[in-house]
Structure formats: C-alpha cells, structure tokens
Amino acid sequence: MTSRAEWAKRLTQTAPADLTAFLARNSGLPGPRGNLELADAFAEWAPRELIVQFADSDDEYLRFCGTEAVGRLIRDDQDQAAMIDLIRTRARDDRWRVREGAARALQIVGDADRATLRRIVADWLESGDALVQRAAIAAICEPRLLGDDETRTAALAACASATQWIERLPADQRRDPAVRALRQALGYCWSVAIAAAPGPGTIAFATLQGSPDPDVEWIVTSNASKARLRRVLDAPSD
User: Fold this and answer.
1) CA dihedral 210, 215, 221, 226 (to 10 degrees)
2) Residue ranges of the chain whose pLDDT lies below 70
3) Would 139 disulfide with which of 35, 81, 103, 186, CB 3.0-4.6 Å?
4) What are 161-173's pLDDT values in tens digits?
5) Residue 82: CB partners within 8 Å, gap ≥ 6?
6) Spatial separation of the C-alpha atoms in residues 111 and 71, rounded to whole Å
7) According to DSSP H, which parts of the chain are helical?
8) Interhelix angle for 80-90 vs 48-55, to 10°?
9) What are the CA-CA distances from residue 5 to residues 19, 45, 194, 216 (Å)?
10) Residue 2 has what pLDDT?
11) Looking at the whole model, is its pTM more than 0.90?
12) Can you tell me the distance from the alpha carbon of 203 to that of 39, in angstroms, rounded to the nearest whole number?
C-alpha cells in the first residue's frame, strides 16, 4: 500500500492540468475501498481554490477528496463559518463516501483544535437532521482525538444525545435511510467512546442496557460485539 507521504510526493510532481485524471486513475473506484491515503495527502497539500472546486464536483471521488480537505480550510481559513456550512451540506450528500468525507474533515479540525471540533459537534447534534448528527458522532468518536477529558466527555455526550434523539422518533420515521445510517454509526461509536473513557463510559452504557426500545437494543448489541468494548466490560473490577 502506498503511503500518504508517497502520494503527497506524487501530487507535487503532477502538473495541474493532469491532477483530475491522476486522482481518478488512483481513486480505487469502482471498488469496495476508495484510496484514503491519497485523499489524506490531497487534504494536506491542495490549494484552497482546488479544494472548493473539487468539493462541488459531480465526480464521487473528487467530491470526497475536496470535502475532506475542507477540514484544513476550517482549521486555517478566515472564512471559517462558510467552510463549516459547506461541510454540513456535504454531511447530507446522497453518496455515503462524500458523507464520510465530511466526518473526516471534522477530524482534521480536531487534530489541530479539539475545542472547535467539540463546538461543531455540539451544534450539529441540535440540528434535528439524522445525517448531520451521524457526521458529528463519527467525527468525534475517533481514537486519535480522544486524548483529553473534555473531548472524551463530549464523545460520550454525543452518543447519548444521538441515541436519545432516535428514541424520541415515532416508529414509522425510524425506517428512513438517514435514521438507519445514524443508528449504524451509533452501533460502533459508543464502543470507541467507552474504550477511551471506561469509567464514565460503562456507567452511561449501562443506562441503555435492558431498554425496551428495539433500536436502542440493537445499538447495545452491536457495540457489545466489538472487541474494544468487550475488553472494557470483561476487565476485572478493582
């Protein structure tokens, strides 16, 4: 597998006129896995104009690359609010890879500024939009970002908030694909957040266990099957 550093080197050696073709040729699509290493390299290297252009492309991989790279603009750009709005729009994209690019963009923000990530996540959880909430929890429930108490607390709170939102939905609305996508993310995000903060995490998770709500029951069962959570739940108590 080619490393991010190697892809970055190859990007700098590619003529601007050939860049679109280079990305398309090395995208890994069609296929089960897009080239994430190339997208990461693009996000760190690309100029602002190209990022914004690709974030609005009709091509799935180019839009994914541009969307992820907007995270760097949120981190560095004076027009931060507009860039956050763009990512929020992409979090609702019809294509799941683009939606994943929105979550990865927020993770780039979090790599440099955890407080801004927490602020965006808290705001998006109040949106009432399942896909926006899905991007928020997928972004913050990332192990590399959970190195401080405030972000660990925010990740657990995000999972709890999104779970409660689903609980409040009428049964007929839960079949919506967007709600299913949020539930799917909650099926692993809880385990990531709990593994980072076992003490408060297991307490929060215990409040879900035994719930009569079928979607909450599914979320509990899905997380309980994850090895990272099993290590926490099976650890001997002091």
Assistant:
1) -130
2) 237-238
3) 103
4) 999 999 999 999 9
5) none
6) 10
7) 4-12, 19-25, 36-45, 48-55, 60-76, 80-90, 96-112, 114-125, 130-140, 149-168, 177-196, 198-206, 214-224, 227-233
8) 30
9) 17, 11, 32, 41
10) 87
11) yes
12) 38
Q: In the chain, where are the structural domains located?
A: 1-112, 149-238
212 Cβ neighbours under 8 A, 6+ residues apart: none
CA 206/CA 220 separation, integer angstroms: 9
CA distance 64 to 190: 25
pLDDT for the residue 16: 86
Residue 31 pLDDT: 84
> What is the identity of the amino acid at 190?
W
Query: Please, how many CA atoms are within 13 Å of residue 202, restricted to the half-sphere of its CB?
Result: 12
Q: Using alpha carbons, list the distances in angstroms from residue 154 to 122, 145, 158, 228.
A: 8, 11, 6, 19
pLDDT of the residue at 236: 74
pLDDT at 171: 93
Local structure of residue 121 (DSSP, 8 states): H
